[in-house]
Amino acid sequence: MKRTVLLLTVLFLAVTAQAKIEKVYLIPFSHQDIGFTGTQLEVAQFYAEMYNDLPDFMESFSDFKFTVETFWQFDCWLKSNPEPYLVDLYRHYAREGRIEFGSAYGSMHTGFTNDYVLSKSMERALDFARESGFEIATCLMNDVPGFSADLPDVLAEKGVMYFMSGINDAYGSALGLEGSHNLFYWQGPLGNRILCWISKDSYAEGYLLKNMSMLRNYLNNLEETGYPYSEAAIMIAFDNAGYFPGAVAYLDLYKAWDDPETELLISTPSQFMNVMEEKYGKTLETYSGDWSGWWEVVKSGGPSSAGQVRRVQEFARELDEELERTDPELKSSMDLNLVMYGEHTSAVTAGWPGKLTLAKTITSNASVVGFAVEAYGALEKLLEKMTSQESVSDELYIIAPHDGEYYVEIPSEIREGECLQLEISGTIFSGYPFHTEYTDRWNSCEDGYFFFLPLKKGVNSVLLAGYRKETDNEESLKSFSTLDYQQVEDGSIEVTMTSREGQSLQFDLRLESYLTGEPTTFLPSGAKISSQNRSSDGLREVVTLGFDRGPLSQISLIVYSRGGVEIRVAIDKEGLPLIPYADHSINYVLALGLEDITGIEYMGARSFTKMNSGLAGERPPFIPFESFVILDRSGEKTLVASRQSFSFNNGEKLRFQLLRHYSYSATSDLGITLLGENEPGTPKVQVFSFYMDTFAGGGFERASGFINAPFVITATSREER
Domain residues for 238? Predict the structure, then answer.
């Protein structure tokens, strides 16, 4: 009995000794919230002034340290033409270890951006570090509650091996690990591993500790709740608050600290991470998986701009080197706009209650749309420059992201009863006339001819080879599939597609809505089919359905001769309802019913991932994804590809988030008032396109061609620009 008591006593002392916090690393920085406390321009001006002032404080207090959380804020200062000696002083501070730069340009929505944009978001800080003679070891992304499974690989490829984040404390359950502070290795799908420190108490944890008594209580609570390390980091920052929270903590906590048992240090992230890796690295757990998604859905408030960015980031990833050779400066501008749109504060919203005037809320939304418009415009200019030679009247260019076969729309005058002919490398191809009522960034012309073409990666020079009469024996759609549909009582449209080989795909679809505060209560739109039209040619059959009430304007079902079916949903934003401010906003989704789904995978920033994750705690109602969702269904895989939609819900149906709409804004000048147009300057009808196919038999290649459809550049389009 005595031996048992002695053993328990020793174990108790060992545990309490292990849990005693002996060193506290205070890490001052300013959390970047672009467009939150002011418009983008106002926040940029604040940082330009703040970085002018910071050196005075650092010169006055030689042991004060500061971290540039994300590089945009420092870049605002660099663009303000500061005195050269101040730039050199910051470089000196960085080499000395008193200033640390995080690698990211902003705290990114990593579930929305692809790996190309995530990689580009690191380049400006890393370039500045190389030019200045210091290294960047840590990436900070704060506030965002969760990150893509591919982030460790992206960081490791850039030589950044530490990651620190204070996630928004209202979403602490996003991380499935126990405890308020977690130190662990995070491994990406490619096997790269980075050391992570995640605080569920947020990046503002230290900002709230106003005196030594509060700090002691905070540390005591950590110890009592089982914090396992003798060192702890406390992040000291607030939203666009500059170095002031850090200065207060330095004077009121660090300088006044009188506890001989616990040492306080003013630190940087890498200083703390180095200590933790050296002391605990060999015993830490390694986790992998995706835990993103709680905030990405807000970008659906600007469906047109979000679609443009998705179009550009996918195409730019495939032609990165070619675009760089074409015009490095223009490409850098495109990349920067992609990064800015991917930043966590870039979204079309009603604004945070009471923060901005109505005019500033509208200005902020217009700035977000501007990032997308500028990125898309830059890509178009780059592609035009890639053609390098002047177009003549009978020549056009098709730019493909990689070698393959593509469906391509060619804008042209339609001649009744005739097919347009194109010549590529001596071979003649025939296209069929089409007309569409609504266009988008993938299908950009209302009238023209539809082709199926073999293309090489990059620029394909194409000759217009005239017209020919359609013949009676043109390939009929009936030779490769049949498409049947009916609308049932609950408003769903039941669809059956049967190929000539006897393969059948059955599904139902319906437009639904939910209020933002009730993300699991889905209501049917109630729209009924009011018109229908069916047409076919040798490449596809198109069924176009019109509806009797807004906001649903049209649904098109398109069956392709080589397999797969496309669904296009046209939403008339002028038909969106007025939603009371108390309900925040309304969301529209496409509900897709498919039977026998036994498993789901979805594309992250770079890699496919499963729903189960070693890091994810509570998952959001809608999971962000990049373009592809794969469904396991009775031994086969069905692929769903999405152009504009980037979040899905996997309840009893597969639901894809289309858009979020706000009617009111709580402004600082007018109180609760009508917001007006949510996404300034964008088309009133928004198109959302999806493609379904079997994964095997070339389905993924066809879906990839659907997502990354080629760009067509004609002499007319050049003249217009």
Answer: 21-288
